[in-house]
Amino acid sequence: MHPTTLNDVAKARIADWHRQAERDGMARAARLARKEHARHLPRRHRATAFARRVLTALGARSLRPPAQPEQVPRATS
C-alpha cells in the first residue's frame, strides 16, 4: 500500500477509536447515573420509600388515623 494511503487509513482508524471512546464514556456515565439514583438513599429510607409506594398503589392516603372533629383547626375571622 502506498505510504500516503497508509497514513490516511491510520488517521481514519484513530478517529474511529476516538469516537468509540467518546461513546463508551457517555454510556458509562449514563449507567453510573442510573446506579447512583437508586444508591443515594440508605437502606432504611429505601424501605420507607417502597412502603409508601405500596400504600399509594393500594389507595391508602396515610398511616395516621383520620383527624377527629375536635382536632381540626378552626378558621379565624
What does the model show?
It is a single chain. Helices cover 69% and strands 0% of the residues. By secondary structure, the chain is mainly alpha-helical. It has one domain. The chain is rod-shaped, with a radius of gyration of 29 Å. The relative contact order is 0.05. The mean pLDDT is 78.
Q: Helix and strand layout, with pairings?
A:
Layout: H1 3-39, H2 43-58
Summarize the structure.
Helix content is 69%, strand content 0%.
Gyration radius, in Å: 29 Å
Instruction: Enumerate how many helices there are, as a single number.
Output: 2
Which sequence of SSEs, written as H and E, runs from N to C? HH
Span between termini = 94 Å
Uncertain regions spanning at least 5 consecutive residues: none
SS elements, strand count: 0
Strand proportion: under 5%
Helix content: 55-70%
| Helix-strand makeup class | mainly alpha
How many structural domains in the coordinates?
A: 1
Largest sheet: none
Shape: rod-shaped
The overall pLDDT average reads 78
Brief descriptors of the model:
single chain; 77 residues; mainly alpha; 2 helices; 69% helix
